[in-house]
Amino acid sequence: MILLKTGDGSQAVLHLQGGHLTAWRTATGREPLFLSPLAVFRPGIPIRGGIPIIFPQFADLGKLPKHGFARTAPWTLSRQAEGATTSSLTVRMETESTTYPDWPYCASLELAIRLGGEALRLNLTVTNQDVRPFSFTAALHTYLRVSDTRKVQIHGLTAHHYRDATQAGRLAHDAAPWLDVAAEVDRTYLEVRRAVELHEPSACLTVRQEGFRDLVVWNPGSEKASALGDLGAEHSQQMVCLEAAAVGEPILLPPGARWHGAQILIA
């Protein structure tokens, strides 16, 4: 576990299992990320909350375990620098062709984190170190803390098409002025180019992305959350996921090529 601090009071906590950011506090003391009180911290088990890294498979759309292997793999610290107004760290993981039989490629992943003031930026870089091309889907599965999902509005998704996993992946068009998340929601919004805002009665958080073309909005709802041993129905009303994602169309990466995606949170 790594603690990253900045002179202005902002800080973050990252676990090397999964390269997983589990906490972020802004310079003014806000804690925008949600971490389940029932989260499990054991090797090989995904941590419920924070910002898991989804790679190279989103959900169960493939042969790998759900959401791939990056979120449970060991990562290593590459760089760390702390300053008066901004601080940063970079972690890395690599795969060989024999590491994961169902995804037999040589690749490297790098996550760079930068924080300061009221902002947090995460940059994910995927490099193909193989002699063959490979394809992947990816996401930053960001859990955001809210006071009550019944009082939340998500703005910026009007006029976008989305795939609704609660309706067997049906393609739909969002014409509403905002999105409510009081009940279960599991949507992949396609080609999201502008900022999205999460509004609460007394707070607003802005989410921007680069490289990632899609945005996943997810909350399991109380019924499904009650079946999750590391979440529970009582905690599902305290979180909503806004996930920078590349899932509508898989990314095809030639040998030696790199892909970059970023998510920026501004509290």
Describe the structure in your own words:
- By secondary structure, the protein is mainly β.
- It has a single domain, classed as Distorted Sandwich (Beta-galactosidase, Chain A, domain 5).
- The chain contains two helices and 20 strands.
- The protein has helices spanning 221-225, 233-236; strands spanning 2-5, 11-15, 20-25, 53-54, 76-82, 87-95, 107-116, 119-128, 134-140, 143-145, 153-155, 161-164, 170-173, 179-180, 185-189, 196-200, 203-210, 214-219, 239-253, 258-266.
- A hairpin with a 2-residue loop joins strand 16 (196-200) and strand 17 (203-210).
- The model has no long low-confidence stretch (mean pLDDT 97).
Count of alpha/pi helices: 2
Computed over alpha carbons, the radius of gyration is: 18 Å
Largest sheet properties: 9 strands, antiparallel
Poorly predicted ranges: none
Number of strands: 20
CATH topology: Beta-galactosidase, Chain A, domain 5
Cα(first) to Cα(last) distance is 24 Å
What average pLDDT do the residues reach? 97
Which strand order does the major sheet show? 5-6-7-8-20-17-16-11-14
CATH class group: Mainly Beta
Label the CATH architecture. Distorted Sandwich
Derived structural class: mainly beta
Tell me what portion of residues adopts beta-strand conformation: over 45%
- Give the helix proportion (percent range): under 10%
The overall number of domains is: 1
Secondary-structure element pattern, one letter each: EEEEEEEEEEEEEEEEEEHHEE
